Amino acid sequence: MCGIVGFIGRKPAAPLLLEGLSKLEYRGYDSAGIALVGEKGIEIYKSKGRLQILRDKIQDGKDLPQTVGIGHTRWATHGKPSDENSHPHQSNDGNFAVVHNGIIENYAGLKKELQAEGFTFLSETDTEVVAHLLQKYYKGDFMLAVRQTVARLEGAYALGILCADFPNQIIAVRRASPLIVGLSQDANFIASDIPAVLSHTRRFLQLEDGEMARLTSGGVELFDADGRLVEKQELKVSWDVDSAEKGGYAHFMIKEIMEQPDVIRKTVSPRLKDGKVVLDGVKLTEEQLRKLKKLYIVACGSAYHVGMVGKYVIEKMTRIPVEVDLSSEFRYRDPIVDKDSLVVIISQSGETADTLEALKNAKAKGARILSIVNVVGSSIARESEDVLYTWAGPEICVATTKAYSTQLAMMYILAAYIAQTLQTVPQAQLDAFLDDLLRLPEQIAEVLKLAPKLQQMAQRYAYLEHAYYIGRNVDYAVSLEASLKLKEISYIHSEAYAAGELKHGPISLIEDGTFVVGLACCERLAEKMLSNVKEVKARGAEVLVVTNDHVKVHADEADHILLVPYTNEMMSGSLEVVVMQMLAYYIALARKCDIDKPRNLAKSVTVE
Ligand code: G6P
Questions:
Q1: pLDDT at position 243, please?
Q2: Is 276 found in the same domain as 159?
C-alpha cells in the first residue's frame, strides 16, 4: 500500500521525509521517492527498490537544504515497479509535484484527453494525470487548481502536492484513502498513517472525504470540497509506534480482517460499470471463451481454497467444467491442457514457487494463462497473458484474510464476465448476481459486528484439541479455509469435510464435547446439512451453526447459531469466512499464540 509523508518547517525536509518513509515501510512498498521545493523550484529524487537505495542516492539528504517536501513509498498498482513509475510525479512544466495513494479509476480517459492537448506522460501510472491536470487548470491560484483537478477524479486518492510558485505550502486532499495532518510548534506534517510522524508530534487532524488541507510552517487550514474553512478538534494520540502501525489493533490479522469491506469495494467497483462487468486490460476474446472445453484453476494454500469456491460458482454460471488443482500436484502430473484451455492461476504474492512452475508448465503446453494476483509486477503477473489484480493492498499477517476475500470476489467477477460474454444465464439473473456483488462490502461490515460475540465464544474454545468443519457445496469449499485458518494460527488440530462424507469415516471421531462447525448458508441444501448437524449432535458434539435467516435452525439443533446476512448461495462464503477468520483469531488470541507470525509458516513460499 502506498505511503505518503510531507513536511513543512524550518529544518531540512529530506532527512525527516526519509525517516517518515522508513516508518511506513511496514505497509509494503517497491519504490520510494521525495520531492523538495525551494527558491529554485522543485527537485525530485526517486528510485525503485528499498528505501536504502534512495538514501544512498541522496546521501541521506544531508546536503539538501529545502525545508518543504513530500515523500512516497509506492506499492505498484498501475505500471510495474520502476524508477519512472515511482512517485513523486511532476507536471510537464515542472511547476507541480504529486504523491498519491489510491487508484484513479478514470485515469485512462483523462490520460487520452491530456495527451490530445499535448501533455507528455513519462510513466504508466494513474497518478501522473493529476500532475498534468494541475498544470492545465492552474492560473495562479494553487488551491483552486487543486479543487478543479480533484473534481475530475473518480476513485480513491490521498494526494500531497507541491507547487513551485508557492514554495511555502503543501496542499493535501483525500477521498477514500487515508491521510492525516500532524501539528507541531515549528513544523507541520501530512502522512498516510500516524506512525510516520509519531516521533515528532502526538497532535493530529483527521481529514474526512473531500477535505483539503493547506499547510505552511506557521499553521494548517482545512477546507471542505467547496472551499469553505473547516474547524476541527485535534486528535491527541497516546499509543506507541508499534500499536499505531496496526492502526490501534493488537495484530495485523485483525486489522486486515476489518479492512475487508474496503478492499472488496476497491476490487469490485472498478470492474462493474453501468451494470456490466468490464475487465480492463483482459485480452481473452469471446472466440477463445467459446472454444473452452475446460477451465483449470491452479493455486496453493488459501488461494487453492478460493479455487474450490470458484469451481462451484463458475460451473453454475457458465456451464464450463472447472478443474481445481494444487500447484504442487499439477506441475508433476503432466496435465492435459492445450491451446484451447484456460488456466486461471491464483496467488496473493505472485511468487509462490509451485504456482509459478505450474504456470510455466501449462504455458509451455500452449494454454492461455489468466492470473489473479495481488502484487503488481510479481513473477506470476509478468508470466501471464492476462492479469486481474486483487486490490487488497499488502497483507502483513502470514495467515491470509483480506487477500483471500478479494480473490473470492475475483471468482465472482470472472464467473459473471464469462456468463455475460457467453450469455449462459438470463440477463435478470446476471443483474441480480452483480447487485449482490455490490452489496457484499456492506454485508461484510455487518458480519464484522459479530466480533465481540466471537471473542466471548473463543474463551470457551481456547483449549480445544480438535475441531471439525462441515458444509455442502460452496459451504464445504469455505469450510476448508475455515479449518486452515484455525490450525494455522492456533495450532489446534482441525479438519474440514464435505458433510455428506461424514458417514464415510469422520463421524467415528465424534464424541462428547467434540467441536463441530456447520456452515449452512446454502438454502437449497439446508435440510440435508441440518440432518448432518443432528447426527453429530446426537453423538455428543458441541455444534456451532453459521447460517442466514432463510434457513430455519431450531434452537435445540445447535449449541450456537450465528446469523450472517442473506445473499445468493454462491457468494455466501464471503460472509461465512469472515466469521471463521474472527473465530480463529480470537481463539488464537486466547491461547496467546504469535498470531501474525505463526510458527514454521512463511507469507510467501518461494521454495518448493
Ligand atoms: C502461504 C501463505 C498462504 C497462501 C499460500 C499461497 O502458505 O501463508 O496464506 O495462501 O502461501 O500463497 P500465494 O501468495 O500464492 O497466494
A1: 65
A2: no
